[in-house]
Amino acid sequence: MYGRYTQDLGTFAKDEAARLRLQEGDTPRPRRPSELLEYTQGRCAPCRVCALQCQRFLISKVGEDWVFLILLGLVMALVSWAMDFAIATCLQAQKWMYGGLDTNVLLQYMAWVTYPTVLITFSAGFTQILAPQAVGSGIPEMKTILRGVVLKEYLTLKTFVAKVIGLTCALGSGMPLGKEGPFVHIASMCAALLSRFLSLFGGFYENEARNIEMLAAACAVGVGCCFAAPIGGVLFSIEVTSTFFAVRNYWRGFLAATFSAFIFRVLAVWNKDEETITALFKTRFRLDFPFDLQELPAFAVIGIASGFGGALFVYLNRKIVQFMRRQKTINRFLMKKRLLFPALVTLIISTLTFPPGFGQFMAGQLTQKDTLVTLFDNQTWAKQGLSDEFEYLGILEAWRHPRSNVFVTLVVFILMKFWMSALATTIPVPCGAFMPVFVIGAAFGRLVGESMAAWFPDGIHTESNTYRIVPGGYAVVGAAALSGAVTHTVSTAVIVFELTGQISHILPVMIAVILANAVAQSLQPSLYDSIIRIKKLPYLPELGWGHHEKYNVRVEDIMVRDIRYVTLNCRYRDLQQVLHSTKMKNLPLVESAESMILLGSIERAQVGALLSNQLSPQRRLLTLRQKVLSEDGHRLSDSSIRFQISTEASSGTPARPALRKPLKPALKRVPSSPADSPPAGATDHTGIALKSLFCANSTAEPTEEEMILGDKMTPAEILEWEEQQLDQLVDFSSAKIDPAPFQLVEHTSLHKTHTIFSLLGLDHAFVTSIGRLVGMVSLKELRKAIEGSVTAKGVKVRPPLASFRDSTASTSDADTTALRQLWDRHQHHPMPREASPGGDDDDDTPKGQ
Amino acid sequence: MYGRYTQDLGTFAKDEAARLRLQEGDTPRPRRPSELLEYTQGRCAPCRVCALQCQRFLISKVGEDWVFLILLGLVMALVSWAMDFAIATCLQAQKWMYGGLDTNVLLQYMAWVTYPTVLITFSAGFTQILAPQAVGSGIPEMKTILRGVVLKEYLTLKTFVAKVIGLTCALGSGMPLGKEGPFVHIASMCAALLSRFLSLFGGFYENEARNIEMLAAACAVGVGCCFAAPIGGVLFSIEVTSTFFAVRNYWRGFLAATFSAFIFRVLAVWNKDEETITALFKTRFRLDFPFDLQELPAFAVIGIASGFGGALFVYLNRKIVQFMRRQKTINRFLMKKRLLFPALVTLIISTLTFPPGFGQFMAGQLTQKDTLVTLFDNQTWAKQGLSDEFEYLGILEAWRHPRSNVFVTLVVFILMKFWMSALATTIPVPCGAFMPVFVIGAAFGRLVGESMAAWFPDGIHTESNTYRIVPGGYAVVGAAALSGAVTHTVSTAVIVFELTGQISHILPVMIAVILANAVAQSLQPSLYDSIIRIKKLPYLPELGWGHHEKYNVRVEDIMVRDIRYVTLNCRYRDLQQVLHSTKMKNLPLVESAESMILLGSIERAQVGALLSNQLSPQRRLLTLRQKVLSEDGHRLSDSSIRFQISTEASSGTPARPALRKPLKPALKRVPSSPADSPPAGATDHTGIALKSLFCANSTAEPTEEEMILGDKMTPAEILEWEEQQLDQLVDFSSAKIDPAPFQLVEHTSLHKTHTIFSLLGLDHAFVTSIGRLVGMVSLKELRKAIEGSVTAKGVKVRPPLASFRDSTASTSDADTTALRQLWDRHQHHPMPREASPGGDDDDDTPKGQ
């Protein structure tokens, strides 16, 4: 992010300033349309004047951030609500079908199994055809995009449509899939599309930095309106997508997420689902004595167990994906029949959950939402003393099995759902894993809670046995802990408060979530980081919990020393060699091979453009023509005129249009610049040459003349000409150079390097020593170093790196030596323009004698 | 932060690595103590071995982050609890005194007024004497410290004691003062002291970067255990102290704050204050229908009004301080009698709140805590239909006045408390403003709520009139909104949920807080920023809500062009001139005045050290001795030996000990380095010289010989000698140079510059153009630029800056030209070592003809 947009922003700012200055000129006299209106002195005239002014005011406000954020919130609330409605309808349809066929078990089974299979297969096929980028969670991609990496096609309308429809079908099938990840992606696409749409009115939507800010806000909106949890949404999105967060942008997320959650819940009220705005999964635990202090160890156990469970889930999920990819026969087969895998998985899962079959042991007929509602239930399910006569009412019925008790059902549910969820989230449809994990966590919590209730039937607090244990509270804790462990976030705690509408269990939830995080983070990466690695997206691993060893590794240990560079006075042949010998995207530009003073960095594409420009057919043509013309002996050579013009252009009034768009390949620049400034007087005697230049300007259609002239050169001649061209010194004046690439020093610690890379979103940095280029560090090296030392635990502090250190001399010397060399060079080879120092003797006396 | 610690960290890491390697060597044979124990084959031997191993394990764990965080949480919980206890006792004592004297109003008044006056005066005096740094909130200072600025004496034990005792007295007086700011400060001091204490065991506590991370966590702990609100505490501290937040450090805050809040509440349970862990100000609003959708406009009104109120509070607070400072007579008087102002303010405020006097109209006898409890009460106070017979019970009694109604009481309370709080927070005692503002906001919310309840006695929802309006909910919303407006934070919303233990009003609270923030942020800086400005701490203003214009200002508009620099081949005289002509703390080091290629930056102190070293009496002595010795003609001159040694040292085995401590003035280096390496054979013939060198090594006690020799030079000779020395070329090899100071480009937008400065905590950056130094931007310029364009609203985009732009040439050219110059220089003056390019003609043909 840092080095790349420097130039763009500059250009942008300049254009913007010019535009604003023009606007400024407009504003003092805005009477033009109203002046016109005064001629039509109708009755409506004042109204129309007013309407016009309103319109102008509105358009001027469209560019404001808050308008954008509120619009985004509104759109996302509508999208979210519509999707929820569609998903509910789908699930209702399945239930209805299943219920209607209760005369025949086989038919029932067919209906139960076919329905989700068709939906999932359709979803997979649809996404595959329309936009394969819509597959999966979307959070890993958003994390990458927010780091500044440009992923193509990830924020387009096509992907949006694919994701919305694919997700609706996938969730409508009743598979254990989540929607929070896809919602983040959908909200981001919404923001991208909205900003493109609004840029038709205002002008501020093209800015890169601003877009990133808006995308960050959009992620918050996505989570926020998925759970109707604005605060938790903002925090979750920050934890999941950012490494460093600008507190400045905090309010954006809050504004958009709050508005979105508000509209989302208002829609529910208007739809008569609810009487007023309440939480999604409202709980009704008692407030006066939510839990006993002595229950805290049980909550801690839930936290620690969830930590292990979360790590296991991530591991399982990754192993399934890797197994699919590595088994070549399976892989080849699946690549051919892409829709077979989703169909197969859905078939297995839905067969196992078939309520009259195995599903009766795991509450198979409940949807995810119903499961959560029952798990957060206020009552105690286990039979105990007084409440022996407790009847499972309504949907609670599902958890009871005549031949076993609720513990068996819960255990079976947890075990089955665990691998099912891990498997289901690998299906190539738009889906997340948050909600399934959340449900499993709630079930686990409930299990612990019911056990506690069975163990202490009258509550722990012996003095007053009025306060029973509330297993529902344990379910809340378990849900927060397991989802926190899988995603490595703490803010799931806030999400459960907002989801349940009760904050009375704050301390148990916080303790469990923190413990779960501590355990999970020390075992496995987060689910999203795991997917990032599987998908091989550019990423930077986090420094672990205890990262002391990072303070001991330094840049000099990990940097690449043998790097290719471009010198200021190199020849085109050197450029060619450099391009062939390295694949770096940014090449350092140094003053000379001796001094190695870093002047800037130049993009690979720019170097390529310089080269191809030098060897372009146009130039060859020109040379040829020049030769032909000089044979006539009557005219000045074209090339001199051409280069006079370009020299003039760069010193006096510059060729602005070309420089304004520095991203365009330099190829097009050379012909266009003389085309801009011909009227100086050159038209008189360079008629044909300029005409050909004009023609050459349209590179797409080579003129006949060009063809003829081009043909006149034999391949050998061309080769000779090219060799000759390659020996020329490079003219960098047309290339776009980043004048301040990011620099590190050899001493910089790995910890600091990591911080700087994530802060600024760098993908490479040059290592300098007193201005001299000595190496380069890219994301790859950093990644290796961090993972290398993260896996090697304990006392072994710098496992693969120590060898480097020993091979090089102590850096304190190196530093001094470098400075001294530079200094000596100055002493012995004063620059030609510098006054020869008269005091050399004074200096040499103490040194050289 | 960026440039400054680079070197330190490097050195630190190196030492650390060495230390660890030594440790590593130790660990494989840890049997030493147990081997010894085997001789004493007593019964306890296994126990003692075990204990020893445990001890060793514990000591190794002491360095872990989580141990530190838990210890911090524990300590802060204890401190917080003890202070709360003391404050409650103080307040109880006042109540008791006031209650016991109810026979005589005058005596009652005396007691009511004297008690707080004495406490506040003591607090002010105590703080003034022990540590004046403890005065005030502490959040502004912490914000500055977390930016990387070192404020002296702010984190010492003395300040800690002063703050704790001063705050206890101040809050015990019953004045409208808060404790959240001081708690942040206290927690930070706790962390600093704790890390210094723990560094006696582990070695990782000296690291600068880590300390900053720990301080950030400590701030969270401070807020968290002040309100028993871990989540809100973490978020509030982030919003208030950070500009960019590392998500990596998120868990630190949560862990410490949760543990702290947990212990804090557990202490309450053990003290039998509570039956179990609950919220501090628990509310009992109904859960099933917390509020009607149609009440939302009222909540929005609270938000907007709070926004204006918050801005007014900040303005009032600042104006009071400025008035005190500007009125010279007042100022002079107050400076003389420092304790008069606190006493006077306390006298006025306590007189006005005297319950039998004016206090009866503003619930004067209630403490802050009681006020909040009553304001968050579940019942409706205003008389309406059915509940006409409602009786004010217990402490609610205070709000009733026989001759007026509750509305009058509330309005008087709000108005009086508003200016009282604004005034009271200017008293020079440790105090914050959060809690008073929170109370005022709650009262305002209550007022609106009671009005709504009076307006719609049967609730708004006409279909079912079972749901009345809950004025307590309005109070919660008002409290969050006003405190959010004053501090410019959104997380006050989370704090109120945790304080009240209910989250049912989430949407009204969020809407009100966001609106309040929007209004307040567009009118005034936050209270903490306002204090930062008053105290003139180094700060960087935030970019406002709509900061479009920031994209149009560029570094070239705001940078200082005329900067002093040090060239690589300069003389000591130049250094002297530079030091005299500028006050910059970091001087750029450039290759030469012609090339201006930036090589690094050198600290002012280093330059000073170089100079004073060159002109040191030791060197003069040496010269003199050399002269004396060379007059003998029998020996080699000392200086040659000396310099041979130092040259050797810098090329071969270097003078490590000196280079390892680059912060020490170079002054001491020269004598110590020959002292390290005399046995080479120089002892033979440089007996006296070396002896004197050894003596010179102990600079504190000049030997007699030295005195004599020093006296031998006349002042004129000294002057001549110094002039001669100043003409020598500077030897930079002993100076500490930061080889990669932060660089910007002329194009960089103000927005990006601001981001980078706050991200990296810079206080200056050099502006380069293709490696050439062209200017410098420091915090001052940035501040000016941001505030200049923030105050000028609307269309006027770049008010004082436009002039700069027009005076300079277009930068696109400037860039190209600079490159061209550099390139030309290379063309025409090839470096002597470079092979003279044979293809020059090829290049010149198109260019020069």
From TrEMBL, chains A, B:
It is a multi-pass membrane protein. Residues 839-849 have a biased composition (Acidic residues). It is found in: Membrane. The keyword Transmembrane applies. Its main location: membrane. Residues 647-685, 819-849 are annotated as: Disordered. The chain crosses the membrane at residues 66-88, 109-131, 183-202, 214-238, 250-270, 296-318, 339-358, 476-499. SUPFAM superfamilies: CBS-domain pair, Clc chloride channel. This is Chloride channel protein 2 isoform X2. The gene is CLCN2.
